[in-house]
Specification:
Elements: E1 3-8, E2 13-18, E3 21-25, E4 34-42, E5 46-48, E6 61-63, E7 67-75, E8 80-82, E9 87-93, E10 98-101, E11 110-117, E12 123-129, E13 132-137
Antiparallel strand pairs: 1-2, 2-3, 4-7, 4-13, 5-6, 7-8, 8-9, 9-10, 11-12, 12-13
Length: 142
């Protein structure tokens, strides 16, 4: 079976034609274009102090605070994205409402990238990176 891939740069459209079936991939829909802020949290740790009594493990502990990890990126209509330090390309699968990172810094690390809407109708993006779930939102313009 022979497959043909066509790319039209002016529209950012990739179409794959295999045995008569056609699947179209475009850039993300307009509400998802622009800057995104993503965040996750790492829990704090309970540390046993050196001066603590080992026979009473529930006392004399120090707790480290939890940490919020923030990432930023921008999606463009031409199928590219930018992070603060690099850029890459993505493809949008409208059937699954998902992104595939084709290259750049998110290709190897971000998985299960899904697009959706919040309860209030605002667009959202979520993905998994380093076994942590990231929720993304579009910041309001100033």
């Amino acid at each position: 079976m022979k497959a043909i891939t066509l790319f039209c740069a002016s529209f950012g459209v990739i179409a794959s034609i295999a045995s008569g079936a056609q699947e179209t991939r475009r850039s993300v829909p307009e509400p998802f274009v622009g800057s995104w802020v993503c965040q996750t949290v790492t829990p704090g740790y309970n540390l046993l102090l050196p001066s603590s009594d080992p026979s009473q493990p529930l006392t004399n502990k120090a707790t480290t605070p939890s940490t919020v990890i923030v990432q930023k990126f921008s999606l463009r209509t031409d199928g590219t994205y930018e992070t603060p330090h690099a850029s890459g390309r993505y493809s949008f699968d409208s059937a699954k409402n998902a992104l595939a990172w084709l290259d750049g810094p998110l290709k190897e690390t971000a998985t299960q990238t899904q697009l959706g809407k919040r309860d209030d109708g605002a667009p959202k993006i979520s993905f998994v990176q380093n076994r942590r779930y990231y929720g993304c939102f579009k910041p309001k313009p100033r």
